[in-house]
Amino acid sequence: MHRFTLAFLLGVLLLQFFPHLPNAYWLVVILIGALLFRKSIYMLGMTLGFSWCLLVAHYHTSWQLPQDLEGKTISIKGEIASIPEESRFNTAFLFSLKKINDQSAHGLVRLTWHEKFHHLYVGDQWQYTSRLKQIHGTLNPDGFDYEAWAVQEGIRANGYITKSDDNKRLNHFFWHHPLDRMRQSLKEKIERYLPSSATSPWVIALALGERHGISEEKWEVLRNTGTNHLMAIAGLHIGFMAGFMFFLGSFVWRRIPFLALKLPAQHAGAISALIIALIYSAMAGFSIPTQRASIMLFTFFLALFLRRKLMAWHAWSMALLLVLLINPLSVLDASFWLSFSSVALIIYGVSARLSPRGLWWKLGRIQWVIALGLVPCSIGLFQQCSLISFIANSIAIPFVGFLIVPCCLLGCLVLLFSIKVGALILLFSDKMLSVLWMILSYFSHLSWASWFPAMPTYGMLITATIGVILLLLPIGSPGRWFGIVWLLPLCLYQPKTPLLGEMRFTLLDVGQGLSAVVQTKNHILIFDAGAKLGDNFDMGESVVVPFLHSLGAKKIDMLVVSHGDNDHIGGAAAIIQQFPVLSAKTSVPNDLSKIRATYCLRGERWVWDNVTFSFLYPSQDNLGLDNDSSCVLKISNGSQSILLTGDIEKFSEKYLIENNFSDLPATILVAPHHGSKTSAVDSFLEAVKPVIVLFPVGYRNRYHFPNPSVIEKYRDLGALQYDTAHAGAIEFLIPATQNTLVPKLYRQEHHHYWNLF
């Protein structure tokens, strides 16, 4: 069973490496191949897994928003398909399309509505006037792939609802999405009757699996302590509740002779455990971890009823196979790997062992196995490994499993019948959470709490996994400590840095904003930090910081923030929080209050590793002009040069022509003001004479950057043009000698079938 399941998983994974989906007609050929290789369990499993995933992927991508409708005002009809997420500024939800402009359509779209006076219910049918665009996310080295997440969720477009008298509810049927309606009702009751606190959103997360409204700072605390698996309904919580109900049900059943004669107490306990597991999984919306836990419990209890001995690996394999049959694209979700990896480690690490002596090892053995075993997985998925996770989880797991989760679940169930009693139980849960949160916050802020290695290759992650498997062998096994040798490549790996006189320049894809990283042999400079898009998301945290970790950066030698617009300074706080910044230059030092920053004034010049950096603008007289005070930085290694211009406009460009004409020629130009028509003076472009022009822009941005007239000007100069919306991150390794520069376009080099282009 487990051999077929693993082969099926490999077949599913194989499809994820395809840049484009094979034609559906290939299914016939593949299935014929499966019949030919039916005697080989591995080939049969792989071909069936590949075929099933290909079929599901074609279904998920069968509808796409027509390009000619992108950005246009259209009428859509359908029903709300998720619990609406309300914030201070808008309401966001998934919408199941039925019609677009009275033409049939199908697929999920993510909508945002800025009107606050409508209370929305999941399952209601609505007609909206909206503007949509195809799914498009930022693509960067070791960054989050939004397009991959969207395709496995079935989301095919996103957009917003415009003001119109045609926005109206068409139907309200209580039997549509009944489970999510119940969850929404519970969520609203908790929000209404539980006093707001720093930890109250976690009560909702533990009760219903809804994590909207939890800030990035709070997630960072959990990642640093290795406890992020505890703050959402997962298999661990299902296991705790099922185990509790199993013993409680068995205990009560034994004390009622009439019932004990009808059904064995063990069977009664198993039924009660399965019921509570299904209830709790339903409250979480049957997420992947709860699916896995429920299937495994059902398999074990079925074996109990049939009086059959069942190996743990068989239950794990059955859960894995069923989850892949439900949605094979779930392999694109980190929770899939964390959930099944952790259970596999527990089975491997505690099965076929002698019972350890001492209370400490009996309580801490599983946690030790998970803490060590998930190191490669954590680094591969999150670029970090918590060094404090064993201690933090030893405190948090009993706290959450035996106290907080039962109270959350009990409070929600009681809330359906008694508001006061249910709210009191939830308040107790919140107070317990606040105590735990103080402990976790303390651990999180320890300087050695987390390890951020340079992002290793897939080969190093595989060797590290082999090392972990060896280290978790039973005591006395030959070659057990040889696992340390297999872990050494992961621990000692350092990515290659540029040679003396070389520089690596990366224009990151931060949507409608700017962030660039310049690396020399021993130094790193960041020019701008992208935008902060809300309390829970900013480009500094989600794009720039992971990229710096992938380089193995331990410090930032200089942070340059060109000016104070959000799309340039918004992510700076997250970067400053993660890395020591040795020097900061900006035209708005008062806006960088967390560090000591000085003005980026014309005439400043320094040399790192035979690479020269110099500010060309602004002068002391040009401060306080918003865009026209942007820092302008030129970087040169003698043979090639880069000109970073921020958001300067025509006034600044004319000033540079008059005062720095001889310094303007550059090989690479990051277009002023994202290619706005308020920039690009002809004489300035002729002075720079760029070979390559880069536009840091967002896909279908509301400003319509870069402007067509500006694109035409650069085309007339004969310059090659790239933009981050279509190319993703753009990287150049610039040698010390005069050579033709070849860009690495991340979207092109790492294209998958779910990516837009």
Structure description:
This protein has 27 helices and 26 strands. A hairpin with a 2-residue loop joins strand 13 and strand 14. Among the domains are: 2-60, no CATH class; 67-176, Beta Barrel (OB fold (Dihydrolipoamide Acetyltransferase, E2P)), CATH 2.40.50; 353-387 and 453-493, no CATH class; 503-749, 4-Layer Sandwich (Metallo-beta-lactamase, Chain A), CATH 3.60.15.10. By secondary structure, the protein is α+β, with helices and mostly antiparallel strands. The model has no long low-confidence stretch (mean pLDDT 88).
Strand order of the largest sheet: 17-16-15-12-11-10-25-26
Radius of gyration: 28 Å
CATH T-level fold name of one domain: Metallo-beta-lactamase, Chain A
CATH architecture of one domain: 4-Layer Sandwich
Q: Between the first and last Cα atoms, what is the distance in angstroms?
A: 39 Å
Helix content: 40-55%
Oligomer description = single chain
Helix/sheet category: alpha+beta
Number of strands: 26
CATH homologous superfamily caption of one domain: Ribonuclease Z/Hydroxyacylglutathione hydrolase-like
Strand content: 15-25%
Query: In this structure, how is the largest beta sheet organized?
Result: 8 strands, mixed
